[in-house]
Amino acid sequence: MKSEKIVPGLILVLLGTVFLLNNYNVINFHWGNIWHLWPIFLIMGGVNLVLANNKTVWVAALKIGVVILGFALLLFGRFENRWFSPFNSRWNFNDKGWYKDNDDDNDNDNDNDNGSDSTGIVKVEGSSTYTEPYVATATVAKLNITGGGTAYKLKDTTDQLFYVKTKEHFNRYIYTHTMDGATPVINLRMKDKKGHIDWDSDNGNSAEIKLNTKPEWDINIDAGATALEFDLSKFKIQRVNINGGAGSFEIKLGQPLATTNIDVETGVSKVAIQIPQNAACRITSNSGLSSTDFIDFVSKGDNVYETQGFEAAKTKIIINMKGGLSKFKVSKY
């Protein structure tokens, strides 16, 4: 084996082993460690690049040692109570450890836990349920989801334009909506309060979302450590844009519009996309150290894959995937 392939190959082997052992409950992997220690993968890649032209035995041993040390920290470290963000310098301490606080003492999120706020949202059951009425003129709608450390699920429909029921443990969700001309813009974001996420507990944050099937949806997700499960097979989807860090992203699509665009960019994540059996689809992949599994697709070269008859199809799904150290899978159902 060429020495420059040692590091990416070993990383994939160790990642696969960790996922497998965790799935069978042989080990109890703390998923929060990936979010806290993601720079380890930059160090692994940097060592491999800097020493790429050195073929000596000691260099190969050094590369392997860096990878093993990094995975040892991921497996055995306990970093759930420490949260670091390079974009924020405000730190506090509570009985659970260090945490960051993004909020000014006098901030105003237009929240009102007893009824509607200034944006016109309707709140039911305190801060746990938000709804947005459907208006027949809303032929296109936009959904923006921001914030990690949570689980997002979408599989059911609603007569409302938008419905979400949240479960809040350490952090809380902020919901607002605006209008872009005739297009409703719905914003759901996680507002950090304590910076601690209990990944190994059922007491984490979650949001169960329902959408109306009549509008064409433009969905944007900007999330860090996230578990996302979206069944979009019942909805008309213009675009889905995912910018994720460490997590799991599962999406099931229905029949496309004239063009349905899916853009995915992740760090260390598992991404699985399902498309209808007869849908025409093109995938462009810039996968770095990631693994890819594109079932029933034909390679066209230059990291482009297509289903049979793609060019002649009247409706198409266009998928662009980019990742540092992720697992990408696209399959048919």
Brief characterization of the structure:
By secondary structure, the protein is α/β, with parallel strands linked by helices. It is 17% helix and 43% strand.
Characteristic terms for this protein:
alpha/beta; 2 domains; 333 residues
Describe this structure in words.
The protein is 17% helix and 43% strand. The protein is built from four helices and 20 strands. It has helices spanning 6-23, 32-37, 39-50, 57-76; strands at 91-94, 97-100, 122-124, 129-132, 140-146, 150-157, 162-167, 172-180, 183-191, 205-211, 216-223, 226-232, 236-253, 259-275, 280-286, 291-294, 298-301, 304-306, 316-323, 327-332. The strands form two sheets. It has an 18-stranded mixed sheet that branches. A two-stranded antiparallel sheet has the order 1-2. The chain is globular.
Note poorly predicted spans: 80-118, 122-126, 193-201
DSSP strand content: 35-45%
- DSSP helix fraction: 10-25%
Radius of gyration: 22 Å
- Strand tally: 20
Shape: globular
**Most strands sheet:** 18 strands, mixed
The number of distinct helices, counting runs of at least 4 residues, comes to 4
* Structural domains: how many: 2
Give the termini distance in whole angstroms. 37 Å
Going by helix content, strand content and strand pairing, the class is alpha/beta
- How do the helices and strands follow one another from N- to C-terminus? HHHHEEEEEEEEEEEEEEEEEEEE
Whole-number mean pLDDT: 80
